[in-house]
Amino acid sequence: MSERPGGTDPVVGVLGAGRAGTAFARVMLAAGIGVDICSTRPPKALRHHLKIYAPGAQAVWPAEVAVRTRHHGPGVVVLAVPQEELDEVDPQWVAGTEPSGVVLVDATNTWQDELLPGWLQAAVDEQLPTSMAIAGRFGGAGGAAVVKALNHISHHELEEAANPELPLGQRRAAALAGDDQDACARVMGLLVRMGFDPVRLGGLPAGKIMEPDGPLFHRPLRREDLLRYAR
Predict the structure, then answer these.
(1) What pTM, to 2 d.p., does this model score?
(2) Tens digits of residue pLDDT in 216-227
(3) In terms of residue numbers, what domain contains 24?
């Protein structure tokens, strides 16, 4: 993911300003990536929170979270909202206007104590990857292409795990899964710039092993470890 024409740094949107969302923001900001971030609080109320937990991130309204990343690349929004609150996220906030529009990185996880929206609980009951249900809700005609990524590394260790100064082969590997090749390429570029070694496991169904209790979750792995699971 290169710098934009005219010297403008790339911008990524983050939906959710909790512990995970602000951890993603800090890592991206440290890598020279601008961050627009939103939450249920209006931007004015969010700014003090960001001064503490993600200095340099720009607080925006949810409907604005994808605006700058569309124009300044890479056209990526990270979904870092608890799954129990996903009904509060309007798919139009991230919907693209063309097939190469916004990519939505599903960085969410399912926890046993969460009361999930019905459409998501149905996928869990059928033992489907939750990303497939999220793609059904946020994708479709004019919607975002969904890629599963950034969920299997704990936000507590994200900053330590990301190291853009290391050669690619010496970095911690970061898995991703998605059906759209262009979307996956954009997310891989983002992960490289953040300081990881990205490995695509396959289409969205491959994201199942990235979920809690899966073989990748919260494990410091290298590329050769992840390639064993690639489809």
Answers:
(1) 0.93
(2) 999 999 999 999
(3) 8-227
Number of domains composing the chain = 1
Which residues are CB-neighbours of 146 under 8 A, at least 6 positions away?
A: 103, 104, 106, 131, 134, 135, 138, 139, 178, 183, 204
On whether residue 202 sits in a domain, the answer given is yes
Q: Which stretch, 58-62, 114-118, 123-127, 139-143, has highest mean pLDDT?
A: 58-62
**Within a domain: 16:** yes
> Which amino acid belongs to residue 67?
V
Asked whether residue 153 is domain-assigned, the answer is yes
41 belongs to a structural domain: yes
> Which CATH number covers residue 168?
3.40.50.720
Of the candidates 14, 109, 110, the one whose C-alpha atom is nearest the C-alpha of residue 58 is 14
pLDDT digits (tens, 9 = 90+) for 51-106: 999 999 999 999 999 999 998 889 999 999 999 999 999 999 998 555 448 999 99
Residue of 104, 43, 44, 40 whose CA lies nearest to 70 = 104
Instruction: Give the Cα separation of 43 and 17 in Å (integer).
Output: 11
